[in-house]
Predict the structure.
Amino acid sequence: ETILSIRNLTANVDDTPILKGVNLEINAGEVHAIMGRNGSGKSTLSKIIAGHPDYEVTGGEIIYQGESILDKEPNERANSGIFLAFQYPLAIPGVSNLDFMRVAYNAKRKYQGLEEIDTFDFEDLIEEKLEVVKMNPSFLERSLNEGFSGGEKKRNEILQMALLDPTLTILDEIDSGLDIDALRIVSDGVNQLKTPEKGYLVITHYQRLLDYIEPDIIHVMKDGEIITSGGKELALELESRGYDFLDDKSTAGV
Ligand code: ADP
Ligand code: MG
Ligand code: MG
């Protein structure tokens, strides 16, 4: 079963073309990684899938669970199971993490035609999820992301993912700024939550994340296109030779 199918996607920001024909297909149970130099368009792709308003899709299609999502609002995409963990999570002063999670969880339930969850049931549910990311319950009382360390923000993203149980999870540079312990916790969380019905897109500039979250397929993005795809060996090649070797490849027509 195909979860996400992106065909010839082109997109602009302020009339400048950023994506220049992206093709990507993610099937249920698959973990895909996108690697590439800074500025190659990785975050743009993830934000466009989530429906970020800064980007104008100029051509192509994004099909999620058999339906085009290009006309759908970001919240509708989120409620239908697309989850994007942001590269730089926002701080929302005054909104407790617990409140935020409950609102997000109930929005999804409402979309599914379900009633709001009882407050006590929600607390039980979230406590269960806290264990996955090894977070202290006091974390829930704090304002969303206010004063969270880099590692705490990332863990919180995984907590949100655990709670919302998305069909398509996109992790954009979830590894940036994490020390090895935090990276391990975050990756363990993702690995524990992985199921054969779901699809995953893991975006990273560095190879090391892929030691922890093992992808089935690795893609390399360059100048707004996926220029090559492969298995684990591709990540190893990138690690030992850097992104430069792809320049030779692309001039050779790959
Ligand atoms: P990556 O995530 O691979 O580092 P990005 O998708 O962030 O790359 O950026 C790709 C290109 O698009 C860069 O040249 C970047 O400057 C540009 N870009 C992305 N988002 C915006 C934006 N909101 N406004 C202007 N330029 C942008
Ligand atoms: Mg970048
Ligand atoms: Mg980026």
